[in-house]
Amino acid sequence: MQDTERAGERELTYRVVAMPADTNAYGDIFGGWLMSQVDIAGSILAIREAEGRVATVAVKEFRFLAPVAVGDLISCYAEIRRVGQTSITVHVIAEACRQLEANCVKTVADATLVYVALGDDGRPRPLNDTA
Ligand SMILES: CC(C)(COP(=O)(O)OP(=O)(O)OC[C@H]1O[C@@H](n2cnc3c(N)ncnc32)[C@H](O)[C@@H]1OP(=O)(O)O)[C@@H](O)C(=O)NCCC(=O)NCCS
Description:
Layout: E1 4-5, E2 11-17, H1 31-50, E3 54-64, E4 73-83, E5 87-97, E6 105-117
The protein binds coenzyme A.
């Protein structure tokens, strides 16, 4: 199978509220917490494309564009950018909505992540093989 570049549709794959347990010692939301949510959001498309188990093999770029506050509703929009022999590259945008503000949506992060389809042995699986 040949690698294919994709300009697919961006879709809402994951929503979550930032909670006090997700803060650091200064009361700010952890960057690592947001990275984890973005990884989950991207993996949802990768699992669907792979029709089975995947693992994150690389985070090609991750930008934190604005801070996240406790209580923000985070919405992650994902889009498949490339499908290789065993890998799927997904671009994710995370938006935050400060629920009490009128014009609340702000882009807080974007990232490109690479997932690999895995077989039962935990090794890369060609994407045209089912798990
Ligand atoms: C995922 C894993 C099985 C891949 O094994 P590997 O021996 O590196 O596999 P390969 O070298 O054959 O690469 C597999 C695919 O990943 C891609 N890939 C590997 N490293 C990459 C990187 N740094 N950036 C982008 N793509 C990468 C390869 O290009 C290949 O894609 P293709 O088949 O579409 O051409 C192995 O690296 C692994 O188990 N990593 C840990 C994954 C994990 O646990 N993630 C969660 C962390 S908590």
